[in-house]
């Protein structure tokens, strides 16, 4: 009976709701260049001057004035800001409150996923763990696309799960549409289109799986087509992606010190522009290919290091001193969660394990080719926390049974 979970879902929602005002009160919403880029593009949209970057006023790039038109960022979040920030009189609090509501929806959709996977065997404590995982909920205070992206991703994963269970071509097509919306918010979602074949194949076999996968890909492509056509007409580049790729790939191909804004190689890539404008994107891609070709083993070594270190560090822990007790407490929590995730994954059918680990698998792959940050794991955490909660319950049951024996 689903009713038995309602008090725990409500408790988790209340916990997440209590956590978020602390972030809104204590943290600055425009604490990085990304926020200013999104505000600049959305401001241009609101003024009716097109999809462009103007009046950015970035002290780190004093010679950069504008890029009009641009594809510097994906369009999903700028359009979101146009409505909730600019059309409400530039009220940051409105954006933050809307993102709080989106977080509540993320938690509810996560419960739906957990309930679908585990049925009546879902441990109620899993919901409390999700509600207490504060890094996931504190993002609502930032003018950044993470909350909107996580919502799109979790919604995709729910529809994708329903597709796996039903074998419905229409549902797979619907999941492709939602995945397309996620890509239009952040390009990091693109590899889901490839890795989604793994649970599809495990569930349906290769022959049927290719049909279902094809339905997903066709509707994904259709969703991305208008933005791709816009970029083709405006720039002569048939792509739905932003111009972040070159910089990220170059950062992944060299040592960290070379990527600092005052480093000579970084300034070479930027020249007189901005680090993710179209010209910088081309230069950084060329520099990345040269760096990887000159030291392929070093690239592989750094990629493996990023894939491991991004996961073993608690999100945001880099802001703390490694001599701090809080630092090591958070590190212990993160390692404990990873252990519980593994424990939870061992108790499921293979296709369900592949499904719940799909976001983690995709992001781990992406970490090999971008300048990864610990906060980048957060969109994968709703599904991983389901595994962690169930893994904890399996461990507790084992302890009780052994004690009783």
Topology of this protein?
Layout: H1 6-26, H2 33-47, E1 53-54, E2 66-67, H3 76-86, H4 92-118, H5 124-132, H6 134-137, H7 146-166, H8 169-183, H9 192-195, H10 197-204, H11 206-235, H12 245-253, H13 264-270, H14 278-294, H15 296-312, H16 325-345, H17 350-356, H18 358-367, H19 381-404
Overall description:
- With 405 residues, the protein is mostly helical.
- Among the domains are: 1-144, no CATH class; 146-240, no CATH class.
- It has 19 helices and 2 strands.
- A two-stranded antiparallel ribbon has the order 1-2.
- It is globular.
- The mean pLDDT is 94.
- Ranges where pLDDT stays below 50 over 5 or more residues in a row are none
Distance between the termini: 30 Å
Dominant shape? globular
Taking all Cα atoms into account, the compactness measure Rg is: 22 Å
Number of strands: 2
Largest sheet: 2 strands, antiparallel
What proportion strand?
A: under 5%
Name the helicity range. Answer: 55-70%
| Element-level helix/strand string | HHEEHHHHHHHHHHHHHHHHH
Number of helical regions = 19
Secondary-structure content class: mainly alpha
Strand order of the largest sheet: 1-2
What's the mean pLDDT score? Answer: 94
């Amino acid at each position: 009976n689903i009713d038995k979970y309602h008090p725990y879902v409500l408790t988790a929602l209340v916990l997440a709701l209590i956590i978020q005002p602390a972030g809104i009160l204590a943290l600055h919403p425009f604490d990085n260049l990304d926020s200013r880029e999104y505000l600049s593009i959305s401001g241009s949209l609101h003024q009716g001057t097109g999809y462009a970057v103007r009046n950015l006023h970035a002290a780190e790039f004093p010679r950069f004035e504008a890029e009009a038109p641009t594809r510097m960022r994906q369009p999903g979040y700028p359009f979101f800001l146009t409505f909730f920030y600019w059309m409400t009189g530039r009220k940051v609090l409105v954006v933050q409150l809307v993102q709080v509501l989106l977080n509540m929806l993320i938690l509810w959709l996560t419960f739906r996923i957990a309930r679908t996977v585990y049925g009546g065997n879902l441990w109620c404590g899993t919901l409390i763990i999700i509600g207490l995982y504060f890094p996931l909920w504190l993002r609502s205070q930032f003018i950044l696309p993470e909350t909107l992206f996580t919502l799109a991703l979790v919604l995709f994963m729910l529809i994708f799960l329903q597709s796996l269970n039903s074998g419905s071509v229409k549902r797979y097509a619907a999941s492709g549409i939602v995945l397309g919306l996620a890509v239009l918010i952040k390009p990091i979602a693109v590899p889901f289109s490839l890795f989604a074949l793994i649970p599809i194949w495990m569930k349906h076999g290769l022959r049927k799986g290719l049909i279902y996968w094809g339905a997903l890909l066709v509707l994904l492509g259709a969703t991305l087509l208008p933005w791709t056509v816009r970029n083709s007409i405006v720039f002569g580049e048939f792509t739905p992606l932003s111009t972040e790729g070159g910089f990220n790939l170059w950062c992944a191909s060299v040592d960290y010190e070379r990527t600092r804004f005052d480093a000579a190689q970084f300034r070479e890539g930027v020249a007189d522009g901005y680090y993710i404008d179209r010209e910088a994107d081309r230069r950084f891609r060329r520099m990345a290919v040269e760096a990887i070709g000159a030291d392929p083993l070093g690239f592989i070594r750094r990629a493996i290091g990023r894939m491991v270190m991004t996961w073993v560090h608690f999100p945001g822990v880099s802001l703390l001193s490694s001599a701090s007790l809080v630092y090591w407490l958070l590190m212990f929590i993160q390692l404990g969660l990873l252990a519980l995730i593994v424990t939870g994954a061992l108790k499921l059918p293979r296709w369900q394990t592949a499904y719940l680990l799909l976001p983690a698998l995709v992001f781990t792959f992406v970490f090999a080719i971008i300048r990864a940050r610990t906060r980048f794991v957060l969109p994968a955490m709703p599904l991983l926390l389901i595994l962690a909660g169930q893994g904890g319950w399996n461990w507790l049951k084992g302890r009780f049974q052994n004690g009783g024996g």
